Amino acid sequence: MSAIRPRLIHSQRLPAAVAARIARDYDAPPPPGHKLTPTELVALAQAFRPDAVMVTTGTPVTAETVAALPDSVRVIATISVGTDHLDISAIAARGLALTYTPDVLTDCNADLTMMLILAAARRGAEYLGVMQAGWGRSFGMEEMLGVRVTGKTLGIVGMGRIGRAVAQRARGFDMKILYSNRRRLAPELEAGATYFADMREMLPHCDILSLHMPGGAAAAAVITAETLALLPKGAIFVNAARGSLVDEDALIAA
């Protein structure tokens, strides 16, 4: 007699390798053809009575969703680094285990951050537009130069896993690293970076500012008109965190 496999439902179609692992190790219904809404997720859970529910950021798990799940559910797993779409308090209050994937995108996010820094500094979007238009003109020696990032000062707000990965890459460009964090890092993690307890004291020294703080529905904007005004003229700002951390109207106005 074969062992009884855990029962699992998931909120959207998954990559082939993940789907194969689920088919091998779990008792699961066919994958949905679209991202399930919270109402659809609850209906599927009530019909299938799974041990675990797997979601992505596209399907919020609110307090109402948690309350409506059948008592068979013991685990909620999210395929994400962020947990903004989950009511963690409600999940904990019901005694459910919660799992997520905290380190899976660290290098990817750091790579994209460096891409954005380089694209902003070297006017990548503008050159893309020129190229797509057929390179209909040439440029003078002082046109479309952009700025070099080599030797610039990079300020990092939020020196967690991703912030440190960005700092590691920036050192390859001989950039000076400053950072602001809730607490100072140990020397081996700091790796020569300069710590500022108050972000506002760091900003006037930054040629480039990169944001890597956790967000959430209740998170207040960190980058505001006041903080943007503290940056040097011509500074580059990259937000590699949540949009809610930035006052976008103030950013556009700056």
TrEMBL record:
InterPro entries: D-isomer_2-hydroxyacid_DH (IPR050223), D-isomer_DH_CS (IPR029753), D-isomer_DH_NAD-bd (IPR006140), NAD(P)-bd_dom_sf (IPR036291). Keywords: Oxidoreductase. Gene3D superfamilies: NAD(P)-binding Rossmann-like Domain. Residues 114-254 form the D-isomer specific 2-hydroxyacid dehydrogenase NAD-binding domain. It comes from the Bacteria. GO terms for cellular component: cytosol. It holds the Pfam family 2-Hacid_dh_C. The keyword Oxidoreductase applies. One of its GO terms (molecular function) is glyoxylate reductase (NADPH) activity. This is D-glycerate dehydrogenase. It comes from Nguyenibacter vanlangensis.
